[in-house]
Each structure stands twice: as C-alpha cells, then as structure tokens.
Write a structure and sequence with these properties.
This protein is of the alpha/beta class and 175 residues long. It contains three helices and eight strands; from the N terminus they run βαβαβββαβββ. 23% of the residues lie in helices and 35% in strands. Bound molecules: inosinic acid and magnesium ion.
C-alpha cells in the first residue's frame, strides 16, 4: 500500500526562510568572499537556493560523507574532499539536516583540519532529538519534530529528492 505524503514545510515557507538565512549569513561574515562547502548529496538543492540568497560572493565546493552503521555508533568516512584550498579562508558548511550531529561535526573537523580561519555551519532542518556531539549549527532554517522527512534534496532511499517541499509520511507523527 502506498503511504500518503504530507507537507511539513511548503515551497513558499522554504523560499522565505532561505532568503532570510541568506541575509543573516551574509551579515555575519567580515569578508566579501567566503567558501561554501555543501555536504553531498542532501544539501544540494538547499545550497543552490542559499547561494543565490547570499549578499556576498561565495566560492562553492563539496564534501561527500559515507556512513557505515555499526551497532551503536555510525562510522563516517570522507569520499569526496573539497578541491579549493581552505587555508585561511572563511568557510560556511551547509547541510540539509542535523539529526545526531555526527555528520556535521565530522565535516566541521575536516574543514578545520585544512586550516580555515573561520568555520560556520548552516542546516536547513534541525531535528529535535538529543545530539551526540557538542557542535551546534550557527544557522538553522527550521526546527522539526523527530519525523523522517524527504524532498528539497533530502532522500528516502535515494527517492523523492526532487519534491519542491519537505514532506513526511502520514502516520509518522503517531510514532
Ligand atoms: P546525523 O549525522 O545523525 O546528524 O545525520 C545527518 C545526516 O543524515 C543528514 O545529512 C542526512 O543525510 C541524513 N538524515 C537524517 N535525518 C534524515 C531524514 O529525516 N531524512 C533524510 N535524511 C536524513
Ligand atoms: Mg546528508
């Protein structure tokens, strides 16, 4: 039986918030050229819109993480590293969603290890669940309940990334 998709955040609301984030982020940097590192693949669509909402110029690069789920902890590995030299650069890391926080922290450490002079982080969605790390994103689009969500770049087993809104399955809110 196919499950009914419900809208959690509609297109208009996403657009408005991304515009606000672009302004907020631009005003927080002391340089007029930053480096945006987008975490593949989930952050692709959010990054494309956020980049156009920034008031400062940004070089764009990517990082790709692969996770292996163990019994209690997820093991992460970098499978694509940014090509732009990050030494002494002001960097903004962009991800689609923060859940446990492990992915964002992993990407953060990777960027710091390349000698960036400042590293800020932005996520579109923050799931309201206990985090396993200390790092908290500097910019958050929306706080959301603990639902599995998809669309606007986020996938459900590599499907539904192209939905223009953030959705979830009916019944998710009942547990
Ligand atoms: P974390 O490392 O536990 O914070 O998980 C973050 C990563 O897991 C994100 O970059 C997403 O790729 C993925 N993820 C977490 N929650 C969801 C979800 O509800 N839908 C789709 N992907 C998710
Ligand atoms: Mg991801």
């Amino acid at each position: 039986m196919s499950r009914k998709i419900k809208t959690l955040i509609d297109e208009k609301t996403l657009k408005k918030r991304v515009k606000e984030l672009g302004e907020e982020i631009s005003g927080s940097f002391n340089t007029d050229k930053i480096v945006v590192i987008s975490i593949l693949k989930g952050a692709l669509i959010f990054t494309a819109d956020l980049l156009r909402a920034l008031k400062i110029d940004a070089e764009l690069d990517f990082i790709r993480l692969k996770s292996y789920s163990g019994r209690s902890k997820t093991r992460l590995e970098v499978t694509y590293r940014p090509e732009i030299a990050l030494k002494d650069r002001e960097v903004l890391i962009v991800d689609d969603i923060i859940d446990t926080g492990e992915s964002l922290e992993f990407a953060y450490r990777e960027v710091v290890s390349k000698g960036a002079s400042s590293v800020k982080t932005c996520v579109l969605l923050d799931k309201e669940v206990p985090k396993r790390t200390e790092l908290r994103p500097d910019f958050v689009g929306f706080k959301i309940p603990d639902y599995f969500v998809f669309g606007y770049g986020l996938d459900l087993n590599e499907t539904l990334r192209g939905l223009p809104y953030v959705g979830y399955f009916e019944g998710e809110q009942d547990g």
